[in-house]
Amino acid sequence: MAQLIKPKLTIKDAYAKTYRGELTITVRDRNGRIVQVIEEPNLIKIFAKEILSHRMPYSKVWDPSGGSGSGAWITSTIDPNEEFAAKYILLGASFDSGGAPLDVNDSRYYTLDPVTGDYIPKLPVPGADNFGDLINPIPISEPYRPLKRIETISFESSYQPADSPLLDETVRAMNNVTVLETVLKLDEYNGMGTSTSDYFTITEIALAAGREITTTGACECTPHVLFLEGASGLNNSSIYATAASGSTISITPSTPTADVNRIKQGDQILIVAQAGSAETYDTLDQLNPYYLVVTKNVGGRDVTLDRTPTNIHGQALTGSIGIYRSTLRLFSQRILSTPFKKSNIYEITITWRIIFA
User: Fold this and answer.
1) Who's near 261: CB < 8 A, 6+ residues apart?
2) How far apart are CA 20 and CA 5, in angstroms?
3) Looking at the DSSP assignment, which residues form a beta bridge with residue 74?
4) What DSSP line would sit under 279-339, residue for residue?
5) pLDDT, tens digit, for every residue of 327-352?
6) Cβ-defined contacts of 99-103 (< 8 Å, 24+)
7) Is 260 helix (H, G, I), strand (E, B) or coil?
8) What is the Cα–Cα distance from 272 to 286, expressed in whole angstroms?
9) In what order do the strands lie in the sheet with 329-341?
10) 3-state DSSP call for residue 120?
11) What is the pLDDT of residues 9-65, one digit of tens each?
């Protein structure tokens, strides 16, 4: 019999259900039988729901069997704004610097409840340690499967009041639940080694949008690095700029016009040392090297940021710097109450439901 695991709801979790998504993890054996179902409530930010409701779903879906068997994007029937469309389900796992799994003993994810003696998940909080990325993302080491794409998009109905909400008879079904799904196959994300002790324990899942990425080499990169856009596009050298002790930086005159217009108002940029690259960059001792572009005119070189770039000592950055445009956008992020172990025995389906009511 399949095991169904549901976390205990707090008052915060139970309040205003219409503002949360629901994450379901279904574990199947080699014969397709369900052995475990994990359900997690998940908050969806209001701004993300606005973006999703106007730009869902992506105009393409990921076909695992396309592209001569290695997978490929295939055209869908809907054409939204591409970059803001949800395309990826990102995974974080508990493992140490040597790749050995830590499970619930990972202090980045879990803390011991002194009352019950159980490990409980920590709430994700804003911070600079992971630059808005996953807490401990799985390095991208598979050249043909650099990220888990959303492979299935569908819609489900829910029931809403149709006249007076006090009357049970006056309810109607509405197709206001979007369902995004991907499958971790038997040979995917099994760990950094070959023994059963090396298998990843998935502890964190995020729904993300970003630029379309097809394949990449085994770069041992993390997701936020893969989505950095430099002077010539994704994963290239930084755009050269100059900082002058204020919130406005200036792209160097030698930068081609095409690269000047790569940075737009509303973008998020990463500031690094000018010689920095997308894989190994120097963040100049900044507490958080990501900034929001508040003002940027088309064709202009001046870029006004949401704050003055400073290092950890509070000193403003001056002189030559490099900048990248970040195209990764996390719509939602969830630390699992019940982490699950990935292996080459079970196929795991991750289903993300978003209620738009």
Assistant:
1) 298, 299
2) 18
3) 61
4) SS---TT-S--EEEEEE--TT--EEEESS--B-TTSPBPEEEEEEEEE--EEEEEEEEEEE
5) 888 877 888 888 888 888 888 999 98
6) 99/191, 99/192, 99/193, 99/198, 100/197, 100/198, 101/191, 101/197, 101/198, 101/199, 101/200, 101/201, 101/341, 102/201, 103/201, 103/339, 103/341
7) helix
8) 9
9) 86-93, 201-209, 329-341
10) strand
11) 444 444 444 445 688 889 988 888 898 898 887 766 555 655 555 555 566 777 777
End-to-end CA distance of the chain: 34
Q: Which is it for strands 60-63 and 239-244: parallel, antiparallel or unpaired?
A: unpaired
Please give the structure tokens belonging to residue 251: 């792209």
Is residue 11 within 8 A of residue 41, CB to CB? The reply is no
Residues facing residue 155 across a β-bridge: 178
Token pair belonging to 346: 């079970």
Contact 174, 160 (CB under 8 A): yes
DSSP tag of 72: E
Nearest of 154, 161, 159 to residue 174 by alpha carbon: 159
CA–CA separation, 209 and 136 (whole Å): 19
| DSSP-assigned states of every residue in 173-239 | EEEEEEEEEEEE-TTSS--SSSSGGG--EEEEEEEEE-S---------B-HHHHTEEETTEET-PPE
Q: Are 255 and 231 in contact, with CB atoms under 8 Å apart?
A: yes
